[in-house]
Amino acid sequence: MAEQNSPARVADDGRVPTVIADDLHIVYRVHGGGGRGTATAALRRIVRREPSSRVREVHAVRGVSFVAYHGEAIGLIGTNGSGKSTLLRAIAGLLPAERGRVFTHGQPSLLGVNAALMNDLTGERNVILGGLAMGMTREQVRQRYQGIVEFSGINDKGDFISLPMRTYSSGMAARLRFAIAVAKDHEVLMIDEALATGDKKFQRRSEARIRELRSEAGTVFLVSHNNKSIRDTCDRVLWLEKGELIMDGPTEQVLKAYEEETGK
Ligand SMILES: Nc1ncnc2c1ncn2[C@@H]1O[C@H](COP(=O)(O)OP(=O)(O)OP(=O)(O)O)[C@@H](O)[C@H]1O
């Protein structure tokens, strides 16, 4: 679990650390895994009703160490399955460390494209409940309500905010989630692929808001396969491959190496 305490008050150079990962290892245990993966083997197991008692381990993050500071926007890159989302979930305290530790300053907020909103409730109710769930007061929600709706652009083409969320397209729902999450000033905000959703105009608005959050002295982590989004928003990049941190440095330097290696 992420330990919610102040990692160190101030570093030697005056910067304030917000997240410290120290030789972090995350292992998933998958029950029922194992056996040969062929169709006949699977069919045989089903016909014989054989329970698959094996537990398979997936070592998703391997010995990752870094220190993140206030005011930084850090991009996380790496090919599919390299451990980016797992690392974010571990920083958010949603996954236990197998070995090593994570220290965070304040409660990190993880904004994934799957963040839960209630489908049967209207956008309006979701803005209010989402704001309260993030720890805003009723008064703060009231003051920021209009800003959230405008940022999301939900009402640009009609009064959609008063309709249930289930009537929204996936892009509209993702935009509303993003707008609710960034309405609050976060100590540590982690965004998993959120910028991939929405149209160009919304992406530009999101990127501008990320820059604002940074200037409000928080730390932003952004997982994305879109190198342009990373270039436009981040000043530092962590490159993960097979769960290992293989490069940590200024955005341009790391992206150049990544693009040369992967051709992406
Ligand atoms: N809930 C889970 N149970 C078991 N294994 C998992 C689970 N979630 C992820 N994994 C495994 O952990 C490894 C890292 O996955 P993760 O989702 O962190 O990668 P990622 O870099 O975010 O990938 P992508 O770019 O495709 O989103 C992969 O091998 C994946 O199969």
TrEMBL record:
The protein's matches in SMART domains, at most eight in alphabetical order, are given as: AAA (SM00382)
Concerning InterPro entries, the annotation shows: AAA+_ATPase, ABC_transporter-like_ATP-bd, ABC_transporter-like_CS, ABC_transpr_TagH-like, Bact_Polysacc_Export_ATP-bd, P-loop_NTPase
The scientific name of the source species is: Streptomyces boetiae
Xref: Pfam families: ABC_tran
Entry superkingdom: Bacteria
Q: Cite the entry's keywords alphabetically.
A: ATP-binding, Nucleotide-binding, Transport
Residues forming the ABC transporter domain are 41-262
- What name has this protein been given in UniProt? ABC transporter ATP-binding protein
Q: Which Gene3D superfamilies match?
A: P-loop containing nucleotide triphosphate hydrolases
Q: Name one GO molecular function term.
A: ATP binding
Family, per the entry?
Belongs to the ABC transporter superfamily.
